[in-house]
Write a sequence for this structure.
């Protein structure tokens, strides 16, 4: 597992928590920050997955 995959997953989870907290408290800014962080985490996780796939393909 590539470090980008792990960091992306963590960022995605943090974004989900921020987004939920923003919804509960009515803080639209926190909710928007959470949504943005969640998307950034998904992208970073995807990059890590691609790096893993490339590394595995090169090993064969």
């Amino acid at each position: 597992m590539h470090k980008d995959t792990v960091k992306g997953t963590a960022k995605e989870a943090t974004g989900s928590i921020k987004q939920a907290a923003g919804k509960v408290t009515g803080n639209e800014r926190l909710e928007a920050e959470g949504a943005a962080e969640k998307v950034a985490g998904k992208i970073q996780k995807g990059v890590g997955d691609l790096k893993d796939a490339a590394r595995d393909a090169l090993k064969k």
